[in-house]
Amino acid sequence: MDGVLVGKRLIGTQAPVTVGWENIPRVEGGPVKQFIFTWFQPTMLFALIAFWYYAPNSIAKTSTAIGIGIGFRVLLLALEWVNPRYESWRLTWKELVTDLFYVGLGFTLLGMAEYYIGSDAAIEAIQHNFDWDKLAWFTGLPLLVQAFLISFIFDFGQYWMHRGMHNWYPLWLPHSVHHYITQLNINKGAVGNPVELFLIGLGIGGFFDFLPRAVLLAGAISLGIGTYQHINVRFNSPRWWRFLFYTTEHHSLHHSQDYEATRSNYSNNYIFIDRMFGTCIDGEAELLGMEGGRRMSIGEQMTYPFTEGWKTIKERFGRPVAVPAE
Amino acid sequence: MELLRPHSLGLPFRHAQADAAQGDIEKARCKGDRAGLRFIGWIWHISGGLPLAPEQSSDEAMDKLIPLFRQPGTSYERTGDTLTFRKKDPAAQDKMSVFDDGILRIEKAVTGPVLRYHLTSRILLLCFLAPLLFLSFAGLAIVTGKIEKAPTEETKKKKDKVLPQHPIDKFLGAPAPEKPKKDGKDKSEDDDGKPSPTPGYVFAGIFASLYFVGRILESRLIKALFKKKLLES
């Protein structure tokens, strides 16, 4: 394969990828379908923001946010059924079970780990020992500015954590498991080794004081943008949307079987962070995964970073095998 | 494509292989396996039968089914009227990806030839056991919640602070931040971020439902798939 030159990099020499928005297929169908799949994303984002901006205090709670998040994902599952991006990414019963297993881990075991030993616990301990009240002026900012700052600070941290995972072997080991997924579906973002899922959940947003409503608004912004990372739906995202926000196209390229393509599009919500640091590639891919698209079982996903890490340590530090002289 | 010898398959139900000219010891082992798994085997085993068209020979039927096993990560062996297969890391879109191994055999019944199949699925077993795992996580949340210490006075004071509202938000009509209640109970249990057993219970329920859906759905889908393949001209 010849590949396409993007900046100084040749993309798509190992597996087929599509580069450039002009080459990406559009939604097929009548004007109503075209309209729905062009304006669905912006409409939902603005609806979510409006809801959390004006919701009475009695319902502006985390439990409401969780309920809306679940409902939104069920709606997106229905959209996957109606308008799939690729038939080869169709959700099967086995894929659904696997994905929900990881979603369940996130809500239970990993949630507990983040609370007791993750960033939540660390930030509380640091705040307890130092006077961080100087950052309390954040609560005086307009709500939407606070919400944007929360999501931007978190996404900026995620960008560097994710980029680090692709460039430093000890971090790549746990993250590599997520790159063995061979198709994108709405809950695929949760699939990965628990060590990586714990690391990716770390953030520094908790250092700053924000209004509780601003935190809920930031969550709604992430839901209205970041959820489309892993989804099997074809959208005609407006030009301004795909310039500012992360899309399924960007993430499919990041999951491509082409090594060079995977080293791009690291952010979660704001693709302009990738544009700022020169790691953005606009395009998409259908063939995803590692080792030619080998699907990893849950058992291997749990142990792979440790078995691979052990192999590497043995290769590097193990006793060299004596080679008989001829 | 790698071809596996039948004895290396490690299938829990060996009777079909035993019938395919295995020895007496194999037959005895087969009977033992069946006795032990009679009551729980249905959890992850799917069996069934499909009558063949009267004019269809067993060779023709097998020839039509063979393409189903020409998939990445699948190894199979055909011995006469019996086909055994095994899958390792099958592709997500492999129509038989739910199954890890199995046996298909053409038998002669009174009414005519019949395709009998016996398939095993680890994902069905895992899905069946998943509710127990999530119930244990719920139990863990209860235990850790009990041993966690009460919030300090400092934390309580911080929560009692009156929060400001920016004039722009006031002008646009956003509700003012909630004032702390006099009794200090200004936060509900679900909003303090403390691990709760509820998600564990919810996911236990989800996986119990998924199991029953999957056990029925996959059984029907595989039967429909074999039927479709056998009827293809």
Provide the fold topology.
The complex is a heterodimer of chains A (326) and B (233).
Chain A: E1 4-6, E2 9-11, E3 18-19, H1 31-54, H2 62-82, H3 93-107, H4 109-117, H5 119-129, H6 143-165, H7 169-176, H8 194-200, H9 212-226, H10 239-244, H11 248-254, H12 259-262, H13 271-277, E4 283-284, H14 298-317
Antiparallel strand pairs in A: 1-2, 3-4
Chain B: H1 15-19, H2 24-37, E1 45-51, H3 58-65, E2 74-79, E3 82-87, E4 101-109, E5 112-120, H4 122-147, H5 153-159, H6 167-172, H7 198-231
Antiparallel strand pairs in B: 1-5, 2-3, 3-4, 4-5
Helix pairs in contact in B: 4-7
Question: What characteristics describe this protein?
Answer:
heterodimer, A: 326 residues, mainly alpha, two-stranded antiparallel ribbon, two-stranded antiparallel sheet, 14 helices, globular, B: 233 residues, alpha+beta, Double Stranded RNA Binding Domain, 2 domains, five-stranded antiparallel β-sheet, 5 strands, disordered N terminus
Strand residue percentage of chain B: 15-25%
CATH architecture of the largest domain in chain B: 2-Layer Sandwich
N-to-C SSE series of chain B?
Answer: HHEHEEEEHHHH
Here the CATH topology of the largest domain in chain B equals Double Stranded RNA Binding Domain
Q: How much helical structure, as a percent, in the residues of chain B?
A: 40-55%
How many domains of chain A? The number is 1
- The SS-based structural class of chain A is mainly alpha
Biggest interface, which chains?
A-B, 48 and 48 residues
- Low-pLDDT stretches of chain A: none
Give the DSSP E fraction of chain A (strand runs of 2 or more residues). under 5%
By DSSP (H or I, 4+ residues per run), the number of helices of chain B equals: 7
Instruction: State the helix count of chain A.
Output: 14
